[in-house]
Design goal:
It is found in: Cell membrane. It is a multi-pass membrane protein. This is Oxidoreductase. By secondary structure, the chain is mostly helical. 60% of the residues lie in helices and 3% in strands. It is built from seven helices and two strands.
Length: 200
């Protein structure tokens, strides 16, 4: 005799289906065009914003403050010993990782690096002053933009690039959760390293 079966109203001609279904070992890439378009828009906005910030700092274009002024700002924020190298790494990192997001290449890793930079920026702004305005309309150097860009990067760590990207079909897109968790742990480790080792 065959194994236990269950009746269902719609399906194949026989009307019988095995009670236990085989669970696939690897999740398929979600095939929702609307999600792909939404992730593309998110990648373009977040990635281009970071890339533009990096380019403005690195080359001093479009009203950017340049590397020297960026190093001075980092020194004022407590990164006295490593202000120069950090300014360079931050500018290059934002530019390169932002471009990777726009292309949808190595998305969870690029997003994790950018998330780490915004996490550091928020912590530095909040501690110990606790007087930084939240909304841009309440004053300059508000947290609103940092929080929005950080949240966008965090969303891309977990959601991935979608299928309209160079990442389409890669292993970390097919099985996103383990890679997302790994990327998040790396982001936390980098942020803690910058805050507690390089801030002196």
């Amino acid at each position: 005799m065959s194994g236990p079966t269950q009746q269902y109203d719609w399906g194949n001609i026989s009307g019988d289906e095995p009670a236990e279904k085989t669970r696939p070992e690897r999740m398929p890439v979600p095939a929702h065009l609307s999600s792909d378009i939404g992730l593309l828009v998110l990648r373009l906005v977040v990635g281009a914003s970071f890339a533009a910030a990096g380019a403005r700092t690195l080359f001093g274009v479009a009203g950017g403050i340049g590397l020297d002024a960026s190093a001075t700002a980092l020194a004022d924020a407590g990164f006295t010993s490593f202000a120069g190298p950090l300014a360079w790494v931050l500018a290059v990192g934002q530019l390169v990782l932002g471009v990777l997001l726009v292309l949808g290449l190595l998305t969870p890793f690029a997003a994790a690096g950018l998330l780490a930079s915004k996490a550091v920026a928020v912590v530095v702004a909040l501690v110990p002053a606790l007087s930084v305005p939240l909304f841009a309309s309440d004053g300059v150097n508000s947290l609103e933009l940092d929080l929005l860009l950080g949240a966008g990067a965090a969303a891309l760590v977990f959601a991935g690039a979608g299928r309209i990207a160079l990442d389409a079909g890669r292993t970390y897109q097919r099985r996103p959760l383990p890679w997302s968790v790994l990327s998040l742990l790396v982001a936390v480790a980098v942020a803690l390293l910058v805050l507690f080792v390089l801030r002196r």
